[in-house]
Amino acid sequence: RNEKHEIARQKCMRARNEYLLCIDAANSSLYKYFADDVSNIIDVCCLIDIRHLE
C-alpha cells in the first residue's frame, strides 16, 4: 500500500511540476508580448501616422 501511495505521489508531483513549467512559459510569453511586441507595434503605428501627415 505504501508503494502505491509513493508511486501516485511521484506522478502527482511530476504533473504539478510540468504544470508549473507550462504556466511559467505562458507568463514569459505574455510578458515579452506586453514588454516588447506591443511597444514595437505602437512605434510602427506612430511612424506610419507621421508619414501620412507629411
From TrEMBL:
Domain of life: Eukaryota
InterPro entries per the UniProt record, alphabetical: AH/BAR_dom_sf, SLIT-ROBO_RhoGAP
SUPFAM superfamilies the UniProt entry points to: BAR/IMD domain-like (SSF103657)
Record flagged with keyword Coiled coil: yes
Alphabetized UniProt keyword annotations: Coiled coil
Protein name per UniProt: Uncharacterized protein
Organism the protein comes from: Meloidogyne javanica
Lineage: Eukaryota, Metazoa, Ecdysozoa, Nematoda, Chromadorea
